[in-house]
Amino acid sequence: MIQSRQAASCLAATLLAVTATACTTRSSAGTEAVRQPPPAGVFDYQLGGPYPPAGDVRIVDRDRTADPLKGIYNICYVNAFQTQPQDGRWWRVKHPNLLVRKQGRPVQDPDWPGEYLLDTSTAAKRTALLEVVGGWFDGCARKGFDAVEPDNLDSWTRTGGAGVLTRSGNIAFARLLVHRAHADGLAIAQKNTPQLLTAGRSSIGFDFAVAEECEVYGECGRYTSAYGKHVIEIEYTDNGRAAYARSCRARSGQLSIILRDRDVVPEGTAGYSYSAC
Question: Where's the Glycoside-hydrolase family GH114 TIM-barrel domain (predicted)?
Fold first, then answer.
């Protein structure tokens, strides 16, 4: 069923002349065909809640609980290495052994309170996590999304001294996620984590990249070296507009580049801001 959906999506993309969108087969993993986002397609990041995008938007990224849109490329956001704040109790009750713990208490992301770190430290725990996160990928595919964006790949860098998570453990889990996404007919993004750009495409198997604030941190060139034009760049208004302006001057028409409010709230909500170049 998913293979048929993807084939139909590719045919529809051709008929609609979605710019430079290609269908490729991930034969190394024995998976179905996946479709990349259209390079430099106008992008909208709607994690804070769905709303109708502007008429020129060709790529939309929404939370897995939202629905995709017809006629454009849809990316499904999944918090794959941490919990969502509203799901914390569910994880503590249903899967307490899959949370990183320090002195018996679940460890939270220091920058995002309420997001507990998922424990990727052993093969058994990674397999158990895949049952949950992989099931969310399956749901994204059933809804009709074209790709997934698994967040917080770099969770091993903020364990708060717990010393459980490692780079190698997260890489191993990422490989499982890539295989599951491709088996579902979904492309899959590397989210941030420039430390893994060399491995991200070549050995982990990510298809494209979603890079937050890469101009602010001087990292955009590293992403394009790894993924070419298959990079979606998001800058944020709380850093000012200078980094966004530099990116537009340097890479407009080559990458998907937007400026967004930090909370990515829906249009019509206080604090909403969106620009694309």
Answer: 43-265
